[in-house]
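Render UDP-glucose 4-epimerase in 3D.
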Amino acid sequence: MASIVTGSAGFIGRTLVETLLSSGEKVVGIDRVAQPPRPGLTVLTADLLSGDELVRAALQDADVVYHLAGCPGVRDRGPDVALRRRRDNVLAGAHVLATVPRRVPVLVASSSSVYGGARACRPSHEAGPLRPVGGYARSKVLLERLCAERLARGGRTTVIRPFTVAGEGQRPDMALALWLAAAREGRPLRVLGSLDRTRDVTDVRQAARAMAELAAAGVQGVVNIGTGRGQTLRAMAAAVAEALDTEVSFTVEQAPAAEPGASLADVRRLRSLIGWSPETDLPGLVRRQAAAHALVEAS
């Protein structure tokens, strides 16, 4: 038996796998993207909805399942994005929840986007109203409903809502990755709305650690994973300039409706459950992210 991580080749998934392996756990990583096996890690390269028997057996025999697989990207406007979100966020999630025995804990990654942003600069609390804007957020709300149904039937289920996770391997469509790429090439940083907008930026290493500790503690229900502190886009841009030792310029564009003015996590429940909440050293985090990219480019 082992811990299962779906989406194990993804941004957060890779860091979670490393976190679990470093604590001595055996891990089965499931992803459509091939990964090299290594000590402690068994790799299954498969689609969750393909009917793969090895995937089914792994899910049924797991100690704990971390379901991180899905269709990411709030800003994705591809022609088939609605179908991909339904398939990869809702249907694949439903399959995992139905396949894993009720006695086995399942931790499911939702998103802070379900809140629709912080209102009047107030932190978003797990019990607060959901105001999803855009197809990505709505697909995550549907996934959460499936989780609530499993929990109501006695299935051990945890939903996490991560806030703006950053660090090594961040997806290239996310703001810090886009800004680092633009700054390297001497292009202006594209800003949506205003440099005074804020984001609760969470270190991917600490997010992964929090997930592992929530699962180990047997926590059920919904939990925010964030810092409880907003970082302005201006501060994020300054961290990019410092990390690359360069000057940056900006182009400011109107923000689409799916872009919240601010995001801010209420982390009181997280602290009460595991005794701590993430704290982000923004300049250090961005330096780490930039260095990791440079290492990949050099290899």
